[in-house]
Amino acid sequence: MSATEAPASPVSPADERTTTGPGRRWGGLSETALRNLALVGVLVVLVIIGAVTRPDLYGDPVRVRDNVFTILEQASVIGVVTVGMTFVIIGGGIDLSVGAIVALAGVWCTTVATQSYGTFGMIFTALTVGLCVGLVNGGLISYGRLVPFIATLAMMVAARGLAASISGKQTQVSENRTINAIASTDVLGIPLLVVILAVVVAAGWVLLNRTTFGRRTVAVGGNREAARLAGINVTRHTMLLYALSGLCCGIAAIMLTSLSTSAQAGAANLYELDAIAAAIIGGTLLSGGRGSIIGSLLGVLVFSTITNLFAINNLATEVQNMVKGGIIVAAVLVQQVRFKSLTTIFART
Amino acid sequence: MTTPATAPPAAEALCVEALSKRFAGVRALHDVHIDVRAGEVLALMGENGAGKSTLLKILSGDYQPDSGRLVLEGEPVVFRTPAEAHRAGVRIIYQEPEIVPHVSVAENVYIGALPRRRGRLLDRGALHARVQADLERYGFAQVLRPDTLGGRLSAAQRQLVEILRALTGNVRVIAFDEPTSSLSEHEVDALFALIRRLRDDGVAIIYVSHRMKEIFRIADRVAVLRDGRLVGQRAVAETSEDELVRMMVGRDLSAMFRRRHTGAARDRSMLSVRSLTTDDVTDISFDVRAGEVLGLTGLVGAGRSELVRAVVGDLPIRSGRVLVDGEPVRLRSPRDAVRVGIGLAPEERKADALILERTVRDNVSLAVLSRLSRFRIVRRGRERDLVNRYVRQLDVRTPSVEQEVRRLSGGNQQKVVLARWLARRPKVLILDEPTRGIDVGAKAEIYSLIDELAAEGIAVLVISSELPEILGLADRIIVMQHGRITGELTHDDATEERILALAMADQLTSEGVIR
Questions:
Q1: How many distinct structural domains can be found in chain A?
Q2: Range with the lowest mean pLDDT among B62-76, B124-138, B199-213?
């Protein structure tokens, strides 16, 4: 009865896996690298548009350099916030309170009392406020089991309220020369704010890609239950993620205070949306488990380059916001299509 | 029994003719001929990667064949999309059907074809009545109510919804893709009753499964695929399990359970549970000794998984003690268990064990990150060496350690989970249903791995519902029922009958049957 059988041989199940295997990598580049390359391409296109619309500005190397630094400076505050946000999202959460934390930390570190403690006192206050608010967020989410969206939404409202009550709804001017000088100082010809951004991004990259903390973040966001059963303290880790985001907001608060030499409860408005949008177009999955610090940085740069493009051409900001919205949608669509097409193209040929 | 050259007309509902399909140069299907007749159940068997899924996806319109064609009731057909296949009456019931969680069963069934009252209002009353009638007609009124929300359904009920969806159109061919892997015994019976009814109504049924017993219960004929080719077809009445296994794997698996572990160190108890009582289990005591495999079995719902969850600190303990290597321990979370040397490979591999979107490397090193790092920086060279070592030792078939785990077959995914724990060098390894949803060839490999682990001195606790597996693997078997241990058997004493007698002890003693 077994006449129709092929000769018995030790066949290994040679697998459907090989059929889909090449979909992941393309020309030896990982998907993250590809995605980042695409964002660099977008940046190049934006710069070319700038050069075409303002040949006078782009014809002069000095002005080009100044304009690049302007773009980077604009990106610096939101960039620092986005690094923290990227960790939170990769870890499976979301932090809607970042703008409010920046405002609160800014207000708190510029009260007359705090300013009397000098530069160190102000920096310490901003970082501590950011960290503590982040810890409260994290505690509510991990130990209080609140949904991240709700907990940080509540914090967003509450922190702004606290900032308004501390400042008496007044704009608080920073009298501290050192703090005020941060935004106008250059280090080796590079604006200090840009250097701070670079340091935070580099630290974020190392933390995400090289440390146990980063690996656990990815695991917690990718599959919470698996991470827990593998012995990761998921609860504590989740709390640390929000604390990290809060700390980044504290750093951003100092930078923003320096830029405007003042702080107020309404500052850093909608930073949460900018940070989330930058992380998303940078390839971070909103559902968690995957993301890239470099991608987030590129996302921030795309936005600030667009802002700059509108500014140098004296165009209205309303249009600019519409373009930004369009770019977010387009970026996500492109990612979906590329995801699908890569796998199907390889699956079908 | 191969297909006669001249089949009676109209009897063949679906003919697959010379179907071939390649993916990126790899042959997934090669010149496959299969017929299904109206009113018969054709079982489709084969290891993972044999081409079953590809074949189903061609039938469903998800994939287009490179060559060959489909003939539906004498007419050549081309399905460019799943919708076209639906319209032609060909439906595939997948293991995890798409169910909308926030609407009722009735609306889920008629999704896309909701009956309307005048205008565009949904006529809920008519809809529920119609679904209720369907449920009664197919004998499922007890199991499923039309107004239950989709999100509350069990795996079995979700499949039932998917089947009802299929039956709302004029269905000619239904294919079931491993429908029973998440069903209880009782639900399997209900499903089989439905399949028989469909068969008697003249529907052609394709039944894909790894489970031999089911094939012999439900199928009329069996077609076996291996490496994309049709190896042979048999009438169920004329074949045997041994023959089918030989056809599937191309080798004899009578030596599937080779027992090399000797249990030399059997006097040292690595995990001792003493009078453990939780919400789900009562007064449980047992030992797992170094170098032995302890089997834990019982019917679904006996409390096996709940017991091990309590042992690793994931469910609260009311009273009783747990000792690891002779030391009393208080485990408050799985993290504590990992620290004292217990690894748990949970039943739901994909949901609870693997980070599917991440690489083999990430998944294997997950539990040993601290050991691989200095000052919290992961030393990547050491990590790669370690992962490569275990990937090689366990023979995980993956192009590289950078492959995403979701792209591996079930067997290889399970090996990744095992590799994670081996890298941790545990004293005790708890494996909950280690071979669920894994094909025969990979099963044999997992068995031999478990055997090796025991030989290396690890205490292994295997939970399984598959009696042949427990009988083949375990040195001792404890049987549970209703949260209590009803008996213990040694490898040499154990038989399927004895295990079942213990697993159903109360029913049997009430009838005075037991020993």
A1: 1
A2: B124-138
